[in-house]
Amino acid sequence: MTFAGKTLLITGASTGIGKAIAQKLLKQNCNLVLIARRVELISEYINQSQNIGSQSLVIKCDVSKKEEVAAAYELIKQKFGGVDIAILNSGIGRNVTVKTYNSKDAEDTFGANVFGIIYWVEKLLPDFLKKKSGVIAATSSLADNRGFSGSGFYCASKAAATIYLEGLRVELKPHNIKVITIRPGFVRTPMTDQNNFKMPLLMEPEKAAEIIISGIEKEKRVIQFPWQIYLATRIIGALPGRVYEWLAGKAKI
Ligand SMILES: NC(=O)c1ccc[n+]([C@@H]2O[C@H](COP(=O)([O-])OP(=O)(O)OC[C@H]3O[C@@H](n4cnc5c(N)ncnc54)[C@H](OP(=O)(O)O)[C@@H]3O)[C@@H](O)[C@H]2O)c1
């Protein structure tokens, strides 16, 4: 698949992985819709970018609010007629331990990480089904297969996203609509800058963006990286619950 001439939507484009993807795609020849709440950050890097080949539309939208997603989709349809490839990348990853336990963190996390995908799919689906094409690439995480202490809301939201996307992939295949699950390991972004634990094989966002763009071009079902962390999470995922909980308690993860 090539991106030239296509309309791509990227949510969570203000910082981190979404920003790095957007900066690379700005140099191509496509229509880019860039979404976040802090749109001033997006305008800032567009203004600083050189060799821009793509047209862009920046929309302020909280993806956890259904009515804001609906309004943003109307603007996209007015400007570009619709979307070909949606990269649903917005996400929140807060460290919440039992000491700081607060259900508001769960609402925000599930709002962005799960409903931020579901609301966009709700708007995109009718048009994708009508034209019998489209790509939904959404960001989950390699942290989707176990509950890590201090990250319970995050892991649960990513597990929900991964399982939801898997079902959607099966259902949409006969309609020629591709669903791609993106599962990164640790990437250096404002989200991980707040972590005070060791993050093995921490990757730069530009490298992660390259892997994600190339994975979408190759129409992979699942884009997961780096392979070492993927392998480790497969092994951790296969451990019996009792063994995992004992090890996690010892390692304080
Ligand atoms: N970094 C990692 O190690 C890692 C690993 C696995 C998965 N991921 C996933 O990768 C994605 C990108 O994260 P990142 O690491 O690049 O973190 P980041 O730099 O904090 O970026 C998160 C992006 O999501 C946007 N966002 C958050 N809540 C939103 C909301 N309610 N509505 C609209 N946009 C919202 C933020 O924009 P505004 O605040 O401006 O709205 C920002 O652009 C997330 O889904 C994350 O879970 C990251």
Morphology call: globular
CATH class: Alpha Beta
Calculate the mean pLDDT score and round it. 96
CATH fold type: Rossmann fold
Associated small molecules: NADP nicotinamide-adenine-dinucleotide phosphate
Q: What's the arrangement of secondary structure elements?
A:
Elements (H helix, E strand, L loop, with lengths): L6 E5 L4 H11 L4 E6 L2 H10 L6 E6 L5 H15 L4 E4 L14 H29 L2 E6 L12 H21 L4 E8 L5 H4 L11 H13 L4 E4 L1 H12 L2 H11 L2
Parallel strand pairs: 1-2, 1-4, 2-3, 4-5, 5-6, 6-7
Helix pairs in contact: 1-7, 3-4, 4-5
The structure holds NADP nicotinamide-adenine-dinucleotide phosphate.
The site of NADP nicotinamide-adenine-dinucleotide phosphate (NAP) has 32 residues, from α1, α4 and α6.
